[in-house]
Amino acid sequence: MARVQPPTEPSTTKLQTQQKTINRRIDRLRERISELEAFDLKTVRNGLTPEVRGLEVRIKDTLVRCFGESTSTYNDLQSAASLAFYPRFLTNGKPIDYQGRLEKNIKRSIELLRQGQQTLMEDLADYEHEHETDLDVTQVNGVLSRRVFVVHGHDDGSRETVARFLEKLGFDAVILHEQANQGRTVIEKVEAHGDVGFAVVLLTPDDIGCVKGGTPEPRARQNVILELGYFIGRLGRGKVCALKRGVLEIPSDYAGVVYESLEGNWKQALGRELEEAGHEIDWNKVMRS
User: Fold this and answer.
1) Residue 282, Cβ neighbours under 10 Å: how many?
2) H or E stretch including 105?
3) 144 pairs with which residues across the strands?
């Protein structure tokens, strides 16, 4: 049985990290908007005060943190950090309306920062859509799925023995040929029924093959090897158990990995694998099977 560790950072963790990062950037923009909305215009007597300058610095820093200084989005939004008003000439001795000008600049800045928020929210939606297939499909409403996909070749006896054992333990054994085709190819059927919490792969000597010029030896069917790789990629290697019958060629990519023999005490071994993957196992049923 293959005993390998799952990836150190599952796709779900990466997705959650990116979600937190983008949401934090949205919050940073919201903080600057709140500061602008709360700014007291009555405190402004000339074009540039320490309060205005400090707000400009914080807005620019936030835009850099959120989008990067060399990005097109930053270039589109950077004027949000320009609040102070500097008249080009005096207005015939009349008082300059700094407050009115600053109020217009603040409204423009708020609108630009809201556009930045919208850009980030769209980025978040796009990222989640692109990575929705990377989510942990092994859980439904927070509960680990007890559907187990049984990958098999031509050894119907081994397939039925393993499937019935899983059912006795309270699992739902998913066997591909028992599912409706609906005009789909084999790999499309595998993908359609891949929302499982675990996979058992039966490596049985159904074919004979070798490298060019080598000696033919028993090996599993090629579709079994393909599906083995598929479920390792989909579920993580810690949720895939390989059982083999007899002596057969093991793919070189998996050399050194231990597989449990179907001629040995495979039921207890499979039970341990399922338990380590997070499933509850009734060991009384295991021992009586």
Assistant:
1) 12
2) helix 98-130
3) 139
